[in-house]
Amino acid sequence: MTMKPHYFIGIKIPSSIAEKLAEVRNAWNLQTHKRQTPPQDMHITLLFIGEDVHGEIGQVEKLLAEIKQQSFSLTIDGIKTFGNPLTPRVVYASLETSRELEELQHQVRQSLKSLQIKPDAKKFIPHITLASRWAGGEPIHLHYSIGNMQFEATEFSLFRIAPKDNPRYQKIANYPLETAPTVSEGESL
Q1: What is the DSSP string of 144-180?
Q2: Which of 49, 65, 132, 177 would be 71's cystine partner, CB 3.0–4.6 Å?
Q3: Per residue in 20-30, pLDDT tens?
Q4: Is 137 left (phi over 0), alpha (psi -120 to 50) or beta?
Q5: What is the pTM of this model?
Q6: Short-list 90, 96, 85, CA closest to 126
Q7: How far apart (Å, rounded) are the C-alpha atoms in residues 49 and 140?
């Protein structure tokens, strides 16, 4: 029996930032986790959809295209974990609170309300997974750190999860965020 594809909506991390994150993570020599997220798969999940049980992914694509929001800056500000702090399921790069990111996530969730799809109901905790699936070993005492890194969120995407492929997360639709109008000196909007 083949598994049906699963989907999520997210923001892909720019490759220069993803490469830096992978470099820092690799320097930790993290042997405690089975999966180390490759740079090309690093992202922020806005909403996990899972399997498209009702054949609505085409409608999801159309509804997401109606979201209007300006691009915004995000700042990676530290390392945190999900699960038991000594044997965490996930080690991730955390993000500074962003009103714009919260608003985009809210719009994404609201846009799918009319569908039968039942997205993940968990509280939104913006993060970039660096390592997952505890493999055992010495408990982690989170002494890992990361310098602040800033990047611009200029788009979000609908992804299909392809567990056996590389990249594992494949964009199937892309949604550019609007760029703020620039104002020249002496000019007003």
Answers
A1: -----EEEEE-EEEEEEE-TTSSSSEEEEEEEEPBPP
A2: 177
A3: 999 999 988 87
A4: left
A5: 0.89
A6: 96
A7: 31
Q: For strands 33-36 and 169-176, give the pairing.
A: unpaired
Q: What pLDDT, on a 0 to 100 scale, did the predictor assign at position 131? A: 92
CB-count burial class (<10 Å; 0-12, 13-18, 19+) for 50: middle
Which amino acid is it at 125?
I
Residue owning tokens 């608003």: 103
pLDDT digits (tens, 9 = 90+) for 55-83: 999 999 999 999 999 999 999 999 999 99
> Burial of 12 by CB count in 10 Å (0-12 exposed, 13-18 middle, 19+ buried)?
buried
Half-sphere exposure of 104 (CA within 13 A, CB side): 29
d(CA 168, CA 178) in angstroms, rounded, equals 28
Extract the tokens encoding 145. 């750190």
Specify whether the CB–CB gap between 60 and 115 falls below 8 A.
yes
Tokens 């949604």 map to which residue? 175
DSSP 19-54: HHHHHHHHHTT--SEEEE--GGG-EEEEEEEEE-TT
Which residues, in sequence order, are CB contacts of 62 under 8 Å at separation 6+? none
